[in-house]
């Protein structure tokens, strides 16, 4: 399960959505040996998603949400990955039922086309996104989605977190297909961390541009929908104000967010990447540049946390992760950028970073329409707790509240064009390499119950009070006492600076 929430500029209210991506069709994850035990659980999750579809839509409606974000499994529609292998009508029927049920309940579908699940047949045939052949196959997949669902789906996301797919799958080997350079000695399945991430991102961008061009020339004029892309976004703060660290911070942003936003707005990769990656960074043809520039109606940002950045010149090993010549850290002067809810977690709570990120997007990329397509907090799974204990997640409620406040600051004070906000997630779900060991949901899922029964957490009840009662979320409701109480995990300068 994968989910999300929405703050409308005019109303200053909030909305949420959910994404279903568990599926039993064979895709790349099912062949990655290091994930075999987790894949079994993915398949169980897929079965329970089928069983719980009506219940989950009812939960969405009862919360007062008017949007539901879900992804469509490529191999569920095209079992062999392309048109030649035939279309699975049962898959079409499954998603038609979800879309129709959502609309019958007054809920708008937000549909993601690709969330890391490359059909295994295409991986076997030509290496998936390592080959430019993927562009035509992805375009054909999208063509089927537009033709079958586009009369009702009005919001499309081509790719979810292409940076994560390239970095985790081809630079550090943590996600499928688990590729990286041998020198890293982390049991990868082959690969080259200095070249493959750039190739994979290049082909993802070309696939995105091809799909957007198809939609705009064949479907958008009569379906009247919108199409965009959802990007992973960490906010980076300089470790201190030295020129070296300020420039390093710019490079960190270029190598993550700019890797995608610069081609989407100018048709070129950032100059800082071109200088450091050299001929390992592919080039766009003039035709490809034309297709890329402004190939979005909105940009999705998935924001969870922030980091400090130090200059780190002359890396010793060739890899995308070293090319930026930066050191990314979570502490400055022995103080973390934000506290964590799980010891050792990557997610340090820093709401101010989201506000800064939105302002940066406005200034650098001409204020595009932005949806916060993911934002949420993890907690450790603890089966020793009772359900009544486990649903007490006030820290998550505060996390969501404080990020909403910072979004509203960006909207009201800086006129950033935010169309909506999606919380991650509607319910606890399978979290990739972490499996079921952490919980992101505002609904508790009982994994020890074969039915995966759902229970609302305190954050869900609070969220419903905002949505149903239309309680205004504004900076003014963050009292000094509330800020003081939260200093145990939120920096004191989060709200006003």
UniProtKB/TrEMBL annotation:
GO terms for molecular function: beta-glucosidase activity. One of its GO terms (biological process) is glucan catabolic process. Keywords: Alkaloid metabolism, Cytoplasm, Glycosidase, Hydrolase. One of its GO terms (cellular component) is cytosol. It is found in: Cytoplasm, Cytosol. The active site is at 374 (nucleophile). Pathway: Alkaloid biosynthesis. The keyword Hydrolase applies. It catalyses: deacetylisoipecoside + H2O = deacetylisoipecoside aglycone + D-glucose. The keyword Transmembrane helix does not apply. PANTHER family: GLYCOSYL HYDROLASE (PTHR10353), MYROSINASE 3-RELATED (PTHR10353:SF137). Belongs to the glycosyl hydrolase 1 family. This is Beta-glucosidase 12-like isoform X3.
């Amino acid at each position: 399960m994968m989910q999300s929430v929405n703050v409308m500029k005019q109303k200053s209210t909030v909305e949420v959505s959910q994404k279903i991506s568990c599926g039993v069709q064979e895709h790349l994850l099912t062949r990655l040996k290091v994930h075999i035990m987790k894949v079994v659980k993915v398949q169980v999750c897929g079965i329970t998603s089928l069983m719980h579809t009506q219940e989950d839509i009812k939960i969405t409606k009862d919360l007062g949400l008017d949007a539901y974000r879900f992804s469509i499994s490529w191999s569920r529609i095209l079992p062999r990955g392309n048109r030649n292998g035939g279309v699975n009508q049962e898959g079409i029927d499954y998603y038609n039922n979800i879309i129709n049920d959502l609309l019958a309940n007054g809920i708008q579908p937000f549909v993601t086309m690709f969330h890391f699940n490359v059909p295994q047949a295409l991986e076997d045939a030509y290496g998936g996104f390592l080959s430019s052949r993927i562009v035509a196959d992805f375009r054909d997949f999208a063509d089927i989605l537009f033709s079958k669902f586009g009369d009702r789906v009005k919001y499309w996301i081509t790719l979810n977190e292409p940076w994560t797919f390239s970095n985790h799958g081809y630079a550090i080997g943590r996600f499928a297909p688990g590729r990286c350079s041998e020198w890293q000695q982390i049991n990868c399945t082959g690969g080259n961390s200095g070249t493959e991430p750039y190739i994979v991102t290049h082909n993802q961008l070309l696939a995105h541009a091809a799909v957007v061009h198809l939609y705009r020339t064949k479907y958008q004029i009569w379906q009247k929908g919108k199409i965009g892309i959802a990007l992973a976004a960490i906010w980076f703060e300089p470790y201190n104000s030295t020129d070296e660290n300020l420039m390093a911070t710019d490079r960190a942003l270029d190598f993550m967010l700019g890797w995608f936003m610069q081609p989407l707005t100018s048709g070129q990769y950032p100059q800082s990447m071109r200088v450091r990656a050299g001929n390992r960074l592919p080039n766009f043809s003039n035709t490809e540049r034309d297709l890329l520039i402004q190939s979005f109606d909105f940009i999705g940002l998935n924001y969870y946390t922030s980091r400090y950045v130090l200059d780190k010149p002359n890396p010793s090993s060739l890899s995308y992760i070293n090319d930026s010549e930066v050191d990314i850290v979570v502490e400055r002067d022995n103080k973390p950028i934000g506290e964590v809810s799980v010891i050792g977690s990557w997610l340090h709570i820093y709401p101010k970073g989201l506000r800064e990120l939105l302002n940066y997007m406005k200034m650098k990329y001409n204020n595009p329409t932005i949806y916060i397509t993911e934002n949420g907090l993890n907690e450790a799974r603890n089966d020793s707790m009772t359900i009544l204990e486990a649903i007490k997640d006030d820290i998550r409620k505060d996390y969501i509240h404080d990020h909403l406040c910072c979004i509203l600051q960006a909207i009201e004070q800086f006129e950033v064009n935010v169309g909506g906000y999606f919380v991650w997630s509607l319910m606890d779900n399978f979290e990739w390499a972490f499996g079921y060991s952490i919980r992101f949901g505002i609904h508790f899922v009982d994994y020890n119950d074969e039915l995966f029964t759902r229970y609302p957490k305190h954050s869900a009840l609070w969220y419903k009070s905002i949505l149903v009662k239309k309680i205004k979320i504004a900076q003014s409701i963050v009292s000094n006492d509330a800020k003081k109480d939260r200093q145990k995990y939120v920096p004191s300068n989060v709200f006003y600076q």
